[in-house]
């Protein structure tokens, strides 16, 4: 099985979610949990952004003993110096340089031509290499960059000694087959490409971040970048838990896995949601409250007979106790009887029929029928008869 390295950027790109601001104590708490989750690399922040972020990155860098801590930097010396300061005391420091390469960014944002972009990037890698043995270089908006310029930039970064080269779909624009094709093209055309690791970094503007990351893995990416719960700029980043579980559940298809401790996924998701204030939608894949909940009678009946009928992975794998059979208007007798048994009632067939009819009446009026509702319904009935 090929190992896919996990680069977590919850503390950097994740913190860029509008409305999110993590202080040093909160960053540290998340960092310790990410360490338990087993991420290989952790981007702790953007030190040049503010003195507070520089201090937080430094606290995380000093605290993490068994993983690589990364600081983000634009392709300029002052930013690189800030990362150098922030990563003092790190067991395994790495700098993450980025510069935009697409025509839109070159023309409207950087106001640079291709040569200026190439030379600026080259100078920044050279400068960073004086202080860091590990350098990642990102071609921001690679997804909308011309193929020949991508190859030129990646070739330069390989020659300058970058260790990881990241190909972001910064604006979440590409379709999986298009994104995968870029990795295939780079692997086939750039000399000595195997000297570096290729990385995927996707945004979710069209809801394709996970599919795009998986397409990149299929086409030779060695590393995935993403965040817990998929938080991040605009519609967010690739949700790491989704990629890890897709690789786990379909390992025969992908032939690749992360080394995440999957049973820590649920706990990590809850902590990130609590500290960032970003609520996880109920129907969110893997970590949403409904991801392992079943409401309809047909599904509940299947689940009670054999869980593989409606679950492709077990809740225990991600650290949850069990699946939930939620009682609502679509639920059937089988799940109702099962629920009653758990509550300590073993009713006769006639009692069950009467109780089930009362339950259906109630379920028509409520979205979800709780254990307390069932108890009230049964006890009323017992008093009536
Ligand atoms: O989305 C992006 O391109 C980024 C870069 C800084 C890697 O976050
Ligand atoms: Zn990003």
From TrEMBL:
* UniProt catalytic activity: 3-methyl-2-oxobutanoate + acetyl-CoA + H2O = (2S)-2-isopropylmalate + CoA + H(+)
Requisite cofactors: Mn(2+)
Keywords for the protein's UniProt record, in alphabetical order: Amino-acid biosynthesis, Branched-chain amino acid biosynthesis, Cytoplasm, Leucine biosynthesis, Manganese, Metal-binding, Transferase
- Pathway in which the depicted protein is active: Amino-acid biosynthesis; L-leucine biosynthesis; L-leucine from 3-methyl-2-oxobutanoate: step 1/4
According to the UniProt entry, its GO molecular function terms are: 2-isopropylmalate synthase activity; acetyl-CoA C-acetyltransferase activity; manganese ion binding
Respond yes or no to whether keyword Lipid biosynthesis is given for this record. Answer: no
* Gene Ontology biological process: L-leucine biosynthetic process
Q: Which GO terms describe its cellular component?
A: cytoplasm
Q: What is its EC number?
A: 2.3.3.13
- The Pyruvate carboxyltransferase domain is annotated at 4-266
Where, in this chain's numbering, is Mn(2+) bound?
A: 13, 201, 203, 237
Query: What does the record give as the function of this protein?
Result: Catalyzes the condensation of the acetyl group of acetyl-CoA with 3-methyl-2-oxobutanoate (2-ketoisovalerate) to form 3-carboxy-3-hydroxy-4-methylpentanoate (2-isopropylmalate).
The family annotation for this protein states: Belongs to the alpha-IPM synthase/homocitrate synthase family. LeuA type 1 subfamily.
Instruction: Quote the subunit structure annotation.
Output: Homodimer.
The protein's name = 2-isopropylmalate synthase
Q: Which species?
A: Paenibacillus donghaensis
Which part of the entire protein is covered? 1 to 385 of 510
